[in-house]
Specification:
alpha+beta; 2,3-Dihydroxybiphenyl 1,2-Dioxygenase, domain 1; eight-stranded mixed beta sheet; globular; 241 residues; 4 helices; 21% helix
């Protein structure tokens, strides 16, 4: 287990689509875009009006998708060794980040906790909706091992979801992002991910997202599948922020 102090949800977007994507996500999260940074201006952060940020944006050369950054307050080499012991594979190491791949192939990064001596705070009260969940979509053959890996890595206990194909990890107080796992109908392949919003009024949130440029893919009892202006699929879920 590693002591995860903060979780960042990263939205990875191919460079050609990044400006349009970043503007959309800034609008629907009601968060300001921080000045771009990095050698290619490839990184930004969604900065909420109050509280600390937990969503970052990245331009990538190809692919795109979602990944997680886990802030830890132990040496990154120590955290990476523990993740590898539990079944992850190391992909790349630099001074300030270790890129890992989970047993089912989901990319995540280990990064250093920088709020030494203080706690970060996410403001949830009063929000009509909140991007607060990353769902790992896992083919059936790797599903059980993937859930066990994340439970062992974080120490957060798993609990059954609203339907048999879902399991979540209990989000500790002070952690901004909940982890959900969906068992896919496909038998094998690499895990992938999408983000979810918790919505007080799912219909009202849907209207806001459509006005910002998203499309409705499908409606379900507990969630609405959406597609953003550049094709990223995400969900609006019936949960309290």
């Amino acid at each position: 287990m590693i002591d995860v102090r903060w979780v960042w949800a990263f939205l990875d977007t191919v460079e050609a689509d990044a400006d349009r994507s970043w503007e959309f996500w800034s609008t629907v999260t009601r968060a300001a875009l921080a000045p771009a940074r990095g050698p290619r201006d490839e990184f930004s952060t969604l900065v909420p009006a109050t509280g600390d940020a937990w969503v970052k944006l990245q331009k990538v050369l190809d692919g795109g998708g979602v990944h997680l950054d886990l802030d830890v307050d132990v040496p990154l080499a120590e955290a990476a060794e523990e993740a590898a012991r539990l079944g992850a594979a190391e992909v790349h190491r630099a001074d300030d980040v270790v890129v890992m791949r989970s047993p089912a192939g989901f990319t995540f990064c280990l990064t250093s906790w920088t709020n030494a001596g203080s706690a970060a705070a996410q403001v949830r009260d009063g929000e009509p909706d909140l991007l607060d969940q990353v769902c790992l979509d896992v083919p059936a053959d790797g599903y059980a091992r993937e859930v066990d890996f994340w439970e062992s890595l974080t120490g957060w206990p798993k609990r059954p979801g609203s339907l048999p194909e879902f399991v979540s990890l209990t989000r500790p107080d002070g952690i901004p992002v909940r982890l959900l796992f969906q068992r896919l109908g496909e038998a094998s392949g690499a895990a992938r991910g999408h983000v979810d919003f918790a919505c007080r009024d799912r219909g009202a949130s849907r209207e806001v997202h459509v006005a910002a440029g998203a499309g409705v893919v499908s409606e379900h009892d507990f969630w609405t599948v959406m597609r953003d202006p550049v094709g990223r699929v995400y969900c609006l879920t019936h949960r309290q922020p």
